Structure formats: structure tokens, C-alpha cells
Amino acid sequence: MHRRLHGRGALFDVDPAGLAPRLVGLRPHHHRGHPLEHAEEPPFVVLTGARGLGKSAVLGELREGYKGHTPVALVDCAEDQFLLPPADRPADSWSPLAQALLVLAEQLAEPVTGAGRITFPRLMSGLVAVAAGGWGDADSERIRREVERILLLNESGTWISGFAGRWAGKVAAKVVAAATGTGQLLQGAIEATLESVAEGFASRRQQKASVWYRTYPNAGGNAQRGLILLARHFQAGGSPREHAERYLVRALLADLTEAYTGVLPRMRRLGRPLVLLDNAQSAPGPGLVSAVLRDRAEGIADQVAFVAARRGEGRDELRSAVRRELPEVARRCDWTPDAAPSSRALLVALPPLSADDTLHIVGALCAQTPVPPGLPPAVHRLTGGNPLGVVLLAEAAAQRLPGASALGELLTAELRPAEDGPGRPAYETLLDRLVPAEYLEELTVLAAAHDHDSACVLAAALLPDTFGPANVRALQTLLAEEGLPAVPGRFVGDPFVRTLLLLRLHLRDADHTAWRTAHETLTTHYSGAAHARYRLHHELALGVEEPAVAHLRDSFPASDTRTWLRTLRFIASAPYFHAHDAEGHDRGGHGDRRTAVALGRTDAEQAVPDGVDAVLHLRVRRLLHAVWQLADPLVLPDPRVCDRLRFELEQLSNLRPAGNALLWRASRDWPAAALAGRPMDGPGTTGDAGTPDDTDDGPDERSGEA
């Protein structure tokens, strides 16, 4: 089933069964049953993660794998049809959730292998009542159009086919003929609906559905009164509408349950019906999820397999949910709910792709083009395994190889879509899909920041006056809600997204004015000695290297080796998007001066300051440029620079007996990591190259152990 996906076998595997076959009770792409896990009540599965992790692709694969074998429906809650009511429909008779229920039922009604259409008389009756609340001044054609779509939910596709059209005409005629006044009009529509159910169907199941609303609160055992109350609650808005919407969700699930009851339906229908919700963080997602979870917690059971996808972790809405990583649910869910409704949800975090997955994707998309061996690991390091990033970069490589020599060239070159149409730079396409469009400009500027204070300084320098500290905090909150990681020392924590935003900042104007202003602003902000590493980082981003060389040279003999390595790594994580000359000024072309410096080719022309150790000075300068080049996520690692990095660290280890173990280990770990496409973590660094904390994450240099 997952032939187009990588790294998602825990969801789709058949033997042994992954999560989907165990919850649906069917093998994907086959009408073959599989033992149900949690047969009494399935967990409400919610796939979580940031943009680009393939949540929508997973839902699409689920739909394709089960379509035609069990009732399945997919709704994207971010679609425009859920934003606003149709132009001729009053807002008090429409909601995103009611619209979603109609769309879901239309898909779930489709016939499947061994079984005909499912009808939805309960939901149909409720939706007609809700719609009738907006018919006060409607023309007969609009009423007929709205009614017919809803009543088609009760089409069985048998001898009664076409009945919905006649039924819609009857309801419309009765409504138009009704006396004026909301109560009488609404009552007339509901009477026509209930009468049509009774007249058109004789089965016990349909008759049960026609009186289902007798149990609506305060209905007094009268189905007609129950529907009138439902419609009035819906029109009232607020919590009364939420109450009515919950009953509509319950009606949908009751109709599905009815379709699976009785001996004959159970023999014909295999597996559970499957409802898929994409972008469930947007309305109507939260309301639908909440209604299902509350009913299940109150003992109102259903047998529908829900799989939703949402950005972020949903910690506010789903506080008590069971949380698992994808590999943890590969063979069993290990899910037990408690009394809280949200505990009925099972949140599954989609992980990034592995290096092997990236290798296979690049190889498949570049099948007709020789791929440099360093490209797949470099793509994996840059993207962090983000599936969208991997696929788009692989497509860019297929279009540009063998001409492109660095990932930066692939990102800035035009990516031509499969269909005819103008190309766009790949980085713009990626940002369109990875970053909220309404905050792209602000995030482009603030990507250079490290924390709230530095972000405020950048906002004051480069953003409108209306964007102040409160807006900065709101944007930090938004990033967390989007599922982007919070990383100390980085305002935008995700390295891939941050790199794309900084690239956009650099290319924002032809002379890189905004880029220089941002880094000059932060250089001034971090003028104090306590924040020297930040200042040197931003100076290096501007091509000014001498202050960094001097600081690292002078601090090497006496500083803690672990701290010194951390500082080197942080300073050298400065972005590099454009070649600089020796004075730090931008120059044209694609030349990378860092390689020449790292290999010692510029040593002869370098003026060493008076009174300093010339050998140490040049060695630190070569080392800084080697780390700067090898840590750059946009270039392929140069084996010659890796060899030089190893040599320079070895030589430094001879000068510091107390720190010999850490320096020696770095001389082995850092070049190996660079060649393998991994971040140069190791002694003196944390998991993120730019993290400026002093966490003790390496071997204690006092132990003398490597």
C-alpha cells in the first residue's frame, strides 16, 4: 500500500500488521479481514507533526488503500468550503461542522465490495432541520436545491432511486406554501421530512431512524419537537450550537452503526468504516473530534475508525491523550483510556525520514541522472528528513544535475512543475508549504534572531512599527502550535526552515541590504563581552573573520576545552550564502573562499598581527574556515577539507595536554560526521550546531578518556 511513501511501514504493513489494518480490520487494497485491535472501542488516532512531514500523504494513501473495500471518507478541514457559508445561505443555518458532516456522509454512502450504499436518515433529518432555519425568505428553487442534496443521503441506489428528487420537491412545496413565521415554516419543513421518511420506507431500520430525535433533550418523546429544538439551538450559536452539532455527529455515527447491525449486514460488511480528517486543527476539526471523544467517554459507542492529521501536538485540546512515536505503535497500540474524553485519542508523532529513506527517494527521482555520492546525505542533513524537503530537492536535482554542485544552487534555481507552467525557485516553493503565508515576511527577518530580546531588536530595525514585542511573543506561540521545535538560542528552532528563511532574507534585495542590516543590528545588540560568541557569529555571517580568529586564538590556551569547541562550532554555524572577499565584502560568482582558506592556500598573503603566535593564528584561521564550510548545510562536504580539519584538530590536541582527549575525539568525529551528512555533534557541542548553552554533553576531559 505504501509504495509511494517511505518510513511509514508502521502504519501500513500487512504481515505483521501495522496500525491501519489492526484498527480498520481489513488489509489495505484487499477485501480480506484482519483481527481487530481494541474491538470494543478503537482509539481516535491523531497524526501530529509540523508541516511537510507527510501527514496529508498518509491520509491519501489510507483512502486509496481502503476505497471500495470499506466505507471511507476524507475531509480537508482547511478547504475553502468550510470557511464561509454559500452566498445565499444565512450564517445562522450553516456551520463548518454541519458542512463537513454532509461531505463525509456523501463519501461514506458509496457502495463497497459485497455491500450497497449506506443511507443516513438520522443525519439527513437533522441537516434538513438546520437548513430550514435559513429558509425564511428563500425562493423555492434554492430550497429545492439545498433539500435535494441533503435528501440524497437517504438514497439506497435500489428500486427507490430517484425518490430523493421527488421528495425534495414535496418538501420545498410544503415550505413555500407554509404560513409566514419562522416557527411555522420550520415546523412545516420538519413535518414534510418526517412524513416522507414514514411514507417512503417500510423497513424497521428506517422507521427507527424517523423517530430517533424523540430522545433529544426536552423533546418529550416527540421527534418533530426534537428536530425543532435542534434547529433552534443551532441558530442560537455559541454553546447551544455546539450542543446541536454534537447531536448531528451522533446521528452520523448512529446511521453508520445501524448499517453494520443485523446478521446480513454483518456478513456482508468487513472492517470498520474509516473517516479521515486532514488539518484537524482548523474548523470543523476541533468540534468534530471533541464530539466523538465526549460521546465515547460517556459510553455512546461507535465502531468508526478515525484517523486525523493536525499540525502541532494538540496539548491544549487533547491534554489527556495517549502520546506515542510511530515505531511504538507498529505492532500494538498500548492504549488504555481513562475518564477524560481526550484520553480516547491516541496521538502518533510522524518522525522524519531516515538517511536510507532519503537515499532511496533521491535515487528514484534521479534515476536517469548520475547522482554525486555526497548528495543524498547532504539532502538529509539539510532537510532533517523532512519528506517534503527531500522530495522537492530530489526533483530539483533531477532537473539540474550534473550542472549543480551545491544544495544552495538547487534551492535558488527554478523548479519546473510536472505540468506546464512557469518555474519558481525551489526555496520559495518550500517556504510556501512549510511556513504560514501570513507571517512569512516577519519570520524571514526574525529567523536571524536567537531569543525574544534579539527578535524585538530586529523587528524594530526591519519591520513596521506596528509589529512590537507582543507580536513577537504571539509569533513564538504560533511556531510552537505549528509543531516546530523550540531550540535554545534560535528564534526559529527548525534548522531546515531557518535556513530557507535566511536564504530568503539574503535574496530579498539585490544588494543584500536587509541581510546586512539584520546582522549589523545583532552585532551591535551583542556588543558586551558576555555575548561575544553571538557577535562573532553575526560578524562572520557578514564575512568579517578576523575578530573570530582573534577570539578563538587568544582563548585557546586557557579556556575550558569543551567550552572552546562549543564556541568554535557556534561561531562557525554562521550562514554563508554569497562569496566574500578578504575584507568581507560581497563579490559575484559562486566561488567559496572558505575552502581555499581551510586548505592553507591563502596563508602566505595573510598578515599576522604583531605579538601573537603566527603558527597558532594561522591554524585557528584554517580550522575556523574548515568548520564553517563543513557545517554549511547548503554545500556538499569536501573530503580535502575534512582531512585538513582532522589534521588541524590533531595538532591543537598536542598543544593542550589537559584537553587532549576532547580535541582528539573531535578530530575523528567531526570529519566523519560531515562526510556522512550528519551534524558535527560531539565533544563540546549539543545536538544543534547553534545551541549556545553549556550543557555537559561530552566526556569529562579530566578523565583522560576519548
Notes on the protein architecture:
This protein is mainly α and about 700 residues long. The protein has helices at about 10, 20-25, 55-65, 95-110, 120-130, 140-150, 165-175, 180-200, 205-210, 225-235, 240-260, 265-270, 285-295, 355-365, 375-385, 385-400, 405-410, 425-435, 440-445, 450-460, 470-480, 495-505, 515-525, 530-540, 545-555, 560-570, 595-600, 615-630, 640-655, 660-675; strands at about 45-50, 70-75, 275-280, 305-310, 320-325, 345-350, 415, 425. The strands form two sheets. It has a six-stranded parallel sheet with strand order 2-3-4-1-6-5, with helices on both faces. A two-stranded antiparallel ribbon has the order 7-8. A hairpin with an 8-residue loop joins strand 7 and strand 8 (about 425). Helix 4 runs parallel beside helix 11 (about 240-260), helix 5 packs antiparallel against helix 8 (about 180-200) and helix 14 (about 355-365) runs parallel beside helix 16. Residues about 685-705 have low confidence and may be disordered.
Topology record:
Layout: H1 9-12, H2 19-24, E1 44-49, H3 55-66, E2 72-76, H4 96-108, H5 121-132, H6 140-151, H7 163-177, H8 182-200, H9 204-210, H10 223-236, H11 238-259, H12 263-268, E3 274-278, H13 285-297, E4 305-311, E5 322-325, E6 345-349, H14 355-365, H15 375-383, H16 387-400, H17 407-412, E7 414-415, E8 424-425, H18 426-434, H19 440-446, H20 452-462, H21 469-481, H22 495-506, H23 513-525, H24 532-541, H25 546-555, H26 561-571, H27 593-598, H28 614-630, H29 639-655, H30 660-676
Parallel strand pairs: 1-4, 1-6, 2-3, 3-4, 5-6
Antiparallel strand pairs: 7-8
Helix pairs in contact: 4-11, 5-6, 5-8, 5-10, 5-11, 6-7, 7-8, 8-10, 10-11, 11-13, 14-15, 14-16, 18-22, 19-22, 20-21, 20-23, 23-24, 25-28, 28-29, 29-30
